[in-house]
Amino acid sequence: MGTLNSKVPEGLLKDKWTTYKDKINLVNPANKRNIDIIIVGTGLAGGSAAATLAELGYNVKSFCFQDSPRRAHSIAAQGGINAAKNYQGDGDSTYRLFYDTVKGGDYRSRESNVHRLAEVSTNIIDQCVAQGVPFARDYGGLLDNRSFGGVLVSRTFYAKGQTGQQLLLGAYSAMNRQIGRGKIKMYSRHEMLDVVIVDGKARGIIARNLVTGEIERHSAHAVVLGTGGYGNTFYLSTYAMGSNVTAIWKAHKRGAFFANPCYTQIHPTCIPVSGDHQSKLTLMSESLRNDGRIWVPKNMDDVLAIREGKLKPIDISEENRDYYLERRYPAFGNLVPRDVASRAAKERCDAGYGVNKTGEAVYLDFAAAIARYGKEQAHVKGLDEDNKALVTALGKDIIKAKYGNLFQMYEKIVDQNPYETPMMIFPAVHYTMGGIWVDYNLMTTVPGLYAIGEANFSDHGANRLGASALMQGLADGYFVLPYTIGDYLADDIRTGPIATDTKEFDDAESLVKSNLDKLINNNGTHSVDYFHKKLGKIMWNKCGMSRNEKDLKDAISEIAELRAEFYKDVRVPGNANEYNEELAKAGRVADFLELGELFAKDALQREESAGGHFRDEYQTPEGEAMRRKEFQYVSAWEYKGQPKDAVLHKEELVYENIEVKERSYK
Amino acid sequence: MKLTLKIWRQKSANDKGKIVDYKLNDVSPDMSFLEMLDVLNQELIDKNEEPIAFDHDCREGICGMCSMYINGRAHGPDRSITVCQLHMRSFSDGDTIYIEPWRASAFPVIKDLIVDRSAFDRIQQAGGFISVNTSGNTQDANGTLISKHAADEAMDAATCIGCGACVATCKNSSAMLFVGAKVSQYALLPQGQIEAADRVQNMVAQMDLEGFGNCTNTGACEVECPKGISLDNIARMNRELMKAAVK
Amino acid sequence: MSGFFKSSIGRKIAMALSAFFLMVFLIIHVSVNMVSIFSESLFNEMSHFMGTNPLVQFAMQPVLIFGVVFHFVMGFILELKNKKATGIGYAKNNGGANSTWMSRNMIYSGLVVLAFLGLHFYDFWIHEITVKYVGGDMTGLIDPENLNSGFRYYEELSEKFHDHIRTIFYVISFILLGLHLGHGFTSAFQSMGVTAGRKKTLQTIGKAYAIVIPLGFIAVALYHHLKYVLA
Question: What is the pTM of this model?
């Protein structure tokens, strides 16, 4: 099991990165011109990496399946980005951000990586402001901050409810500058379908032009995957419709170990499912928990009356409401981390207290905040604080200024006015902490193949804190990979261009083509979505917010059966040499069907509860997650032909700078 | 709900294309517009016909991918939303709905309802950025104070999702709202000042080269913009170009 | 700078500049015409001054003609370019949902005004040129041989409005001009970088201008027409 070398540098934690940067190999500017790098994905990680590597002088080829790099799903992140700037003077520091992230991840992430992330977090904000990202500011012209779940300081920078969009457009603008200079060649509407390995090193990819259907060969000295997470395995999630596992799954099949596939974040505040037609779930930003109070009725009679439409939530008196997060976690209250909040909602709904027709929803109530802000405003303005109508109106204005766009979005989807009646929310799949295993350099177990951003497993352990995904994506792309990849490429300055007319490329291309032909000529009876929805149900019911041995074993066999059925019975209309979304979807679902099984296998193997992974068998008497010392490792899976044959490798996690404690938010 | 759909079908860029009628009998008002099309596509696949190709991705109104002209309006009848946020409760039982792709010479149809909007990317590549390298030692983020007013206004301009509704709805297929928003974002921030003249000149030149039409200030773009980008951004771009010309 | 007026925005600014010029001219024109309602002699004197002053005739008149021609030619060029930019039209389009009729049909209101100008040139300008520069009669008198015959301007003006058809065409043209100005006034400011759409005062002035100016012309036409019909 000694195959994993995380290559963490020696030395004090706080000096590791600085010392390491000083010592690694560099490529001289003249030689960078002779080196090609392929970057797949143009989200925060892929986009920022492409821009930075092109600035440095490398020839970058960038790929995305969307019609423009600007549409990568990083764009949908609402709340914010963390950085240890301590602009608020509330005691924040690099160490505290490091500490919060490791603790938030339930002590399942690599210390050195997380500390590096906290170190470069401040550079990200500087960089983005210089790029013209319009972060929110206060009246003095200084940057504003808000607070997010799981922490006790305000370190989150934001741009209205569209922080991800603004950061991505920043990275996209940096890319545009390099595309304009000819340093990045952009391939939009292209999907990567395989990695090409030559002499044990990643040397290119096979991509399909989604418009013409043409299969293309692209070579490079290194390949970087910034292709995001695989939450769409669950069919319903807050991911974009096109988000998929294909790129990293193909990499896995070519030798990259897949780490912690079962670590999935289920976000507590999403709009509940409305019916079978549902294609996607919509997130309501975590920032809402700053002002919203989460509750369900205390009495079952009230629950039933609400479901039958006989009672309205606003008619239930305070003493008959169960603010269960405030009850269970008085210190953090409604701002507990996401995994804790989601599980608590599930616990109440499983107990029968869900408030919509399906019994899968809880209330997120702003009435208290409206009253509080309204009173404050009335007092400030010297108006009558006892005038209820006035106070409510003033309070609503404040809430509107803070969350107006989210409230509007909610009303559009649910057709209820959240200023008047509490929102209904339920947890939904939102992020995957697991991903391709990488070492300190962000290199996978395949030399020359890198994984950055959500595509790798590295920084969030078993649970990610809010506003940390944007931080990690940009840290990897702007400030980590550009250094570490040079160390590898320094050996490649004499290699010259990589030929694509080799046997390795031939083989990879014919494999891709035969896979596509198989799907298109299958002539089965069911559509791709039919199988995807079935997979999603298995995943949600058996590998969701809580898992147990029996369910996981069932899931493994059910997914394997479903996969066999898929290959026997899927119907893909049209043909392969044209724009064909069904074909693209079929390829992605085929990979989800393999990953899903490994996911369940990983969850089965991890006989503990940690972060987003909760095993019914391993909980404290109070129903909290029970971590086990013997599972303090990263599970990294090696592909061996079938998901069931995957071989487990362990990277033991060592905590020298932080005390591993029970993770309590009480 | 029962609906009659009149949808533009076009096999490829070279095909002529035509409106084809479809009927749907069981549409729930809680469905989103795209989910309604999913249902139709499912029926088509089950009948062994080719599903309707349309662009979509995030389905929460932020990626800017979805792009349909519905009953004569970009993103359909409701204001301040994209197609993916449009719900079927905005229609009535028995309605006939026209669904067409964005129309503009600079946005050629790729297939059915999908158009090629890469012209937008090329305009941004011509100057839609601030030339700053990633170094890790740029000025501290609070080193330059920016008034809340300017930051908020820049943010309002920056919310553009690049969907192209402004072009689609403009009777001249003009891209001025899109370009104006990007020019404005940088023109409003101190960081954007150094390159301001070059930026606006290069972006406008590229916009013209792509074959977008001229602005006649009808204001339709502002009304149909899902993010409510204001016409003031076009005025600001005009000022910026005049400033650049006399420099 | 030369590149500036080749760009789409440069052209639009040129369009706005010529529009401003024409709008100022309209104020002068309508003022002089209005005088004809109140004072025949003052109208005649003003007309004679305008018709014979070298500065007006040889400096301002060519500029005006250039302004008119430029505004039209540029309007056509832009319209053609815009047509080319739009390509295939929509099977169903609901323009009324997001913009005014005036703003969408500037080319048509403009074309009617152009047709009117054709008539106006024929009636007035060609006539003046023929009398003054071909015939060499700079006296402005009804009968150049008779110093007591009085100025011809008022008489010629009122005579034009004897005809029903011509008067109706005149009135319609000015209604269309009103619609043209209803969008054009604020649009010109917007093109020049003034956020006209947001400035309430500008909008009000624009509306007033678009109503008052054409109304003035129409009033003159109806006054002379009714005076003749009822006499």
Answer: 0.96
